[in-house]
Amino acid sequence: MNSSPQQPRAPRFDLNLPLSFKTEDGAELGHCVNVSSSGMLVVFDRPVELFTTGELVMQVGEYYVNIKARVARVLGGDHGLSFQIRSQADHLTVKILVEYAAFRMQPDPANQAIPQPSVAPDLSQLRVL
């Protein structure tokens, strides 16, 4: 029995985005399944080894963004990647990526009895390749 308290998982948001994962060995293609402030769940076209590090590249809205990541978990075809946040720019990129996913998950106010205000993330702050 492990007596150390576990930290709660960061909230995850569904996000279906095509991406590439650039590593020393080339680039792997895949798509994001969901994202949180700590990482994302990705399904790649081919298996990627555990602990592989690289750079995720994806289009978020009208911007292409990149963030360093490491494969932290592999279960079947699912790959859990942890973000490697090393700068304020990395932190901002992840923050906006999560806000983008959360915003996309908002129900359409036109389909609700009481409209819910939603503020779209400011994508212009994303780093561009």
Molecular structure report:
There is one protein chain. The protein has one helix and six strands. A hairpin with a 2-residue loop joins strand 1 and strand 2. The chain has 129 residues and is mainly beta. A six-stranded antiparallel β-barrel has the order 1-2-3-6-5-4. The radius of gyration is 16 Å and the shape is globular.
What is the mean pLDDT? 83
Structural category is mainly beta
Unreliable stretches covering 5 or more consecutive residues: 111-117
CATH class label = Mainly Beta
> What is the first-to-last residue Cα distance?
46 Å
Radius of gyration: 16 Å
CATH architecture: Beta Barrel
Give the topology string: H per helix, E per strand: EEEEEEH
> Can you count the helices?
1
The number of strands is 6
CATH superfamily: predicted glycosyltransferase like domains
Descriptive tags:
single chain, 129 residues, mainly beta, Thrombin, subunit H, 6-stranded antiparallel barrel, 42% strand
Summarize the structure.
The chain is mainly β. It has one helix at residues 88-104; strands spanning 13-23, 26-35, 39-44, 53-60, 63-75, 78-83. The protein has a single domain (13-106), classed as Thrombin, subunit H, CATH 2.40.10.
Write the layout of secondary structure elements.
Layout: E1 13-23, E2 26-35, E3 39-44, E4 53-60, E5 63-75, E6 78-83, H1 88-104
